[in-house]
Amino acid sequence: MPNWSRNRVFAGRSRDQFVDLSTSVGDVALPNPVMTASGTSGHGAELGAYFDLSGLGAVVVKSVSAKPWDGNPAPRLHPVAAGMMNAVGLQNPGVAAWRETELPALRAAGARVVASIWGFSVEDYKSAADALARCGPEVVAVEVNLSCPNIEDRRQMFAHDPAKAAAAIEATAGCCRPRWAKLSPNVTDITQIAGAVLDAGASAVTLINTVMGLAIDPSSGKARLGNGGGGLSGAAIHPVAVRAVYDVRAAFPNAVIVGVGGVDSGESAAELLAAGANAIQVGTATFADPRAPHRVLNELQAWCNAHNVSNISQLIGKAHRS
């Protein structure tokens, strides 16, 4: 794995004109704040054909469960104005198969890996987390995707209920790694859920997941996705993500936040950082441009240089210091 402990990205021709993009998500040190978003680039290694994965802050893989899961019926994706609707349904081979067949390619690429897990029940989350304990040091953290259905109460996702969200976080300690709780924007007060998972042991919160939506073919009256409704992602939800990050940072000044939602440029990444994110993720933009995470990183570097930001810490949370 490359030595990036003194990572500095030089944005000008003079060595005196540099942008130090290094950041940390809790105890996880990163050379820069740009990561992929779970579920938008397979298990991550696919992007290695377009750029050096070790150059990103981290690669966040597609969510895996304790056992294989087939996901939802097709069609699963549908483009909409300023974004995309999806109802993939978290299809995955299970943690054991992922560890054996997908993780080696990321390890070989020198990527820092953030595993992502989900489940139908608290016990499912525990089983998935426990299985990750046997992974190597390249897996630096585990993102606990709480924005999933659960059969204990189909009326609510874990991320819609503070007690259930906290229970899932407590159950995942067996992964022996920092846990980031990925939360849903489809709630009345996201700060209430954030407070619950932070108290339960989450070292960071990832804000946000998709916004609930529905696309209908007016000629047939049928939903355009095989599962009916789905999640809206892309540029359309960026302001929602900015508000969620801002509100959680205001409520919990010392919390660690990963911002995600509609990041497609260096400026949109900078906006989430200014709202209070310590790092960001690039997701839907990779469907149109597989190089998007690398491009956003370069654009963020250039944006910082153009705005006299020599260290990314000057930008993180800036909106709360104005």
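^ that was protein a. below is b, sequence first then the tokens
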Amino acid sequence: MSKISLNDIKKPIESELKEFESHFRKSVESTVPLLDKIMHYIVQRKGKQVRPILIFLCAKMFGDINKATHDAASLVELLHTASLVHDDVIDDSNERRGFFSINALWKNKIAVIVGDYLLSKGLLLAVENERYALLQIVSKAVKDLSEGELLQMEKARKLDIKEDIYYEIIRQKTASLIKAACKAGATSVTQNKDQLNKVADFGENIGMAFQLKDDLFDFGDDVIGKPKGIDIKEKKMTLPLIYALNKADNKTKKKFLNYIKRDSENPRKVKEIIEYVRGSGGMEYAHDKMMEYRKKAEDILSTLPENEPRAALFDLVAFVTERKK
């Protein structure tokens, strides 16, 4: 098992990430005291920063990090944060990364407006600096993300998600923004279409692996950042569950689908589903699929310029698929 840490991965871009933090803080400032207070709260509770790391590493792999790279990182983070704030309202979630969510502290109405504000700040940043190529890349990701969310909601009502639909949902919901981050970073320093397409494909594959790892956590034994079974409670059909139900006989399948449909808040029934999935080979199947996406990402990366940022990206691929939370 890899002992790679995010701090090791950040080394080639350490100074750039520090500069980005002040760049991002400046990009969310507001003269409205309440809004400024909320922005300060958001900035102080940043997550792993996987997307900014990808942006700076993908840029540095091809050239020198510049103002456009910083704009790309701020744009992606602004739109990503906006989507998270709105997600917490939709999911009625009171927690984000171990802290109170915006809607938990300031209620839904304010949270929705905060999400809109972040979105507008991202659009203004791009337009005012004439970063139209970056805006196109990130806007496409936000469109995909919205479609993925709605597709998942539609399927959650019927609980009829097939494996190919599941891949389409996670491609749109998660991989699209990671793909955009990689491509936006590279676009800030190069116009080589072949290289940009490769970087985008790399991002999509690492994004798919990232989401599969998250879905495995919901059924795992590791100490994780969210309670086990939360996807089941939210009626989200993830790959380990889809595989287990496809292998089940009709009676068992019907029983568990009824649990998800009607009793997803019942801890005993959720535990029974988790135990069934773990015993059915669902975990192993999803892990193998995750490793297939990891291999695709590594194969693409091996065709890109060999340097320190590329080595860090290889480490990041390993980190994403081997992390404990």
